[in-house]
Amino acid sequence: MKMRAGLWIDHRKAIVVAITEQGDETALIISKAERQLRRSGDSPLKGRYEPRQVPADDIRQRTLTGHLNIYYDAVIASIRGAESILIFGPGEAKGQLKERLEKHKLGGRIVGIETVDKMTDRQIAAKVRKHFAEKDRK
């Protein structure tokens, strides 16, 4: 049996569960992307911001996109050897990851995409094991 992978993903982190003949391994990949970039001096006590202190939206979007590209590449590198990939999570990150996998010609390995809420590491590992155990019975 080759490696099978399942992962819970959002824009902040990905929890990857790899199942092999030797057992399963869980890995955490943290994103450096921030949706709301922090501004220096952000305090009601310090008064209003000057427009020059706030980065332009296109600059913030390019920065976010760059961080997400690095993050998705790290996730893809961790699951590249998997013959089957299950993706689940709460937001749009799973769809974005699917598009990147297809661009890397790994889209055919995706066996499912599901929307789920926050889960603990144990719940994620159990969901991945259960999904692939059900696939083995069929």
Account of the protein in words:
- This protein is 37% helix and 25% strand.
- With 138 residues, the protein is an alpha/beta fold.
- The protein has a single domain, classed as 2-Layer Sandwich (Nucleotidyltransferase, domain 5).
- It has a five-stranded mixed β-sheet with strand order 3-2-1-4-5, sandwiched between helices.
- A hairpin with a 3-residue loop joins strand 1 and strand 2 (13-20).
- It is globular, with a radius of gyration of 18 Å.
- The two termini are 16 Å apart.
Percent of residues in helices = 25-40%
What is the quaternary state of this protein?
A: single chain
Low-confidence stretches: none
Tally the helices: what do you get?
3
CATH fold topology? Nucleotidyltransferase, domain 5
Q: Name the helix and strand elements from N-terminus to C-terminus, one letter apiece.
A: EEEHEHEH
Rg value: 18 Å
Strand order of the largest sheet: 3-2-1-4-5
User: How many individual β-strands?
Assistant: 5
Shape: globular
Short recap of the structure:
By secondary structure, the chain is of the alpha/beta class. It has a single domain (4-38, 51-133), classed as eRF1 domain 2 (Nucleotidyltransferase, domain 5), CATH 3.30.420.
Keywords:
138 residues, Nucleotidyltransferase, domain 5, 5-stranded mixed β-sheet, 3 helices, 5 strands, 37% helix, 25% strand, globular
Question: Would you spell out the secondary-structure blueprint of this structure?
Answer:
Elements (H helix, E strand, L loop, with lengths): L3 E6 L3 E8 L2 E8 L26 H23 L4 E6 L3 H11 L6 E6 L5 H17 L1
Parallel strand pairs: 1-4, 4-5
Antiparallel strand pairs: 1-2, 2-3
